[in-house]
Amino acid sequence: MSASQPPVAAGRRGNPWLSLIAVAFGLFMVGLDGSVVSIANPEIGRDLGASTAELQWVTNSYLLALAAALILGGKLGDRFGRRRYYLIGVAGFTVASVAIGLAGSIEGVIAFRALQGFFGALLMPNTLGTLRAVFPPKKFGMAVGIWAMVSSVSTALGPIVGGLLVQNVSWESVFYINAPIGVIALAFSAYVLPESKNSTGRHKFDVAGVLLLAAGLLVLIFGVVKGETWGWGSGSTIGTIVAGLLIIVVFGWFETRQEHPLLPMRLFRSPALTIGAVITAINFFTLLGSIFYIMLYLQNVRGYTPVMAGVLTLPLSLASVVASPIGAALTDRFGPRLTMPVGMVLQGAASLGLLFLDTDSSYHVMWPSFVGLGLGVGMVMAASSEAIVGNAPVKDGGVAGGLQATMLQVGGALGTSVLISLISSRVGATLVGSLTDAGVPAPLAQGLSEAKDAVSMGVAPVTADMTASVRAAVVEGAGTAFINGVHVAALVAAVLCFAGALVAVVGIRRGTPAHQ
């Protein structure tokens, strides 16, 4: 450990395995929330009358706030106490979860989801930062494997728990369930977690760095989210995305001139850490974007209940659970140069498998892709955690954890936005043709083109005054247009994953030692 790392107290607060259990509670809560919301989204949209764009903001307001503040959360933990900021994050996340259920409007849900994301940003990086501080280097890989497995288990349970709650209670209950988990997490963590920090004295906090990074990430992701509405080739979209990237570049330059920066640029001297951050973003771009449209397909196109949709996607989550410890063991033995490309290839192949989806595909067409996505995610999670946090000095453990979590959330936000935008764009281009090919009269098909937002969510724009034959034709044509969009999104995700695998193979050297 670094010289500035204080000795950990003896007894229950000196046991790294108790610390792992403690941070697992908070990690479990955040992971469960992520997969539960994907199940609840269709019901939230119906109950609150939300548009496609508003439903995207239920996901993206959370991801934006989380991404903007994650490195800040890690830095605060490193400097003022990881235990302190982990507990603040758990408490705030729990309260915000309950507030979402009580909001009563889509605007309220979006606002409290953003607050929930902010507290998640205090919580998440300090889970890995704490583990980096309390575990000896030789056991850190094993701890990361268990950390990744907990994340996967919570994702596995999310669709089942969420489906049961949405179907039998209400969509609000998927947020209320965080209350008992949060209380347990607070009580147990307060009892066993040691405080760890790496104070460098009473120096000025990098407030300007915080503001620059938050502004850059917010502007960048806002441009991507609005690309669907403004048009990807419009000056507004391109200008906003370029502005976000420029602010991030200015942030990087500014950080090199600070004695105590928010994000030390020296971390990026490690090729494994840098590539691990990029692969983490691609990993969750593919995962969260794919889960979003898969859930729309299963519930809105195929008509499965939320519970059944959760059951059908269980192979994805279970495969991730299995792959996490395997990925950690393989990374310990062979390094991330093996496990990161393998995980990326698995996800790429799974995405290609989704090109075979049709409006009436049997389950045997779906499950191999679900398994491939899960195996890839679990493998990459373990490898990237070791590559990023394991290659950072202990004193920067929280910041490195924040970097990984930031790339994870930025990737997820971009995946949800970009892939759904691609689906929407393809739906807009093919809807009228798909409807007429299915037998819908041309004038009616032209009129239904205004319903492309609904079709982009997998919903057929049928009305009560349509005859049975016309209604069936509309359902068929709308489903075909949606599937056309899904195929484009899956192909883009596959290309990104294969590119990520190539970057990992070429860029990570064999036997790169971790910094201590």
TrEMBL record:
Give the keywords, sorted: Cell membrane, Membrane, Transmembrane, Transmembrane helix, Transport
Gene3D superfamilies xrefs: MFS general substrate transporter like domains, Multidrug resistance protein D
- Which residues constitute the signal peptide according to the record? none
- Tell me the ranges covered by the Major facilitator superfamily (MFS) profile domain, including all copies: 19-512
The terms describing its cellular component in GO are: plasma membrane
Q: Please report a single Pfam family linked to this protein.
A: MFS_1
Q: Which molecular function terms from Gene Ontology are attached?
A: transmembrane transporter activity
List the membrane topology term(s): Multi-pass membrane protein
UniProt main location, coarse: membrane
Q: Where in the cell is it found?
A: Cell membrane
Task: Report which superkingdom the organism of origin falls in.
Answer: Bacteria
Q: Which residues cross the membrane?
A: 20-40, 55-73, 85-104, 140-161, 173-193, 205-225, 231-254, 275-298, 304-326, 369-389, 401-423, 486-508
Q: Does the keyword Cell inner membrane apply?
A: no
Query: Entry's PANTHER family?
Result: EXPORT PROTEIN, MAJOR FACILITATOR SUPERFAMILY MULTIDRUG TRANSPORTER MFSC
Q: Cross-referenced NCBIfam families, in alphabetical order?
A: efflux_EmrB (TIGR00711)
The entry's protein name is: EmrB/QacA subfamily drug resistance transporter
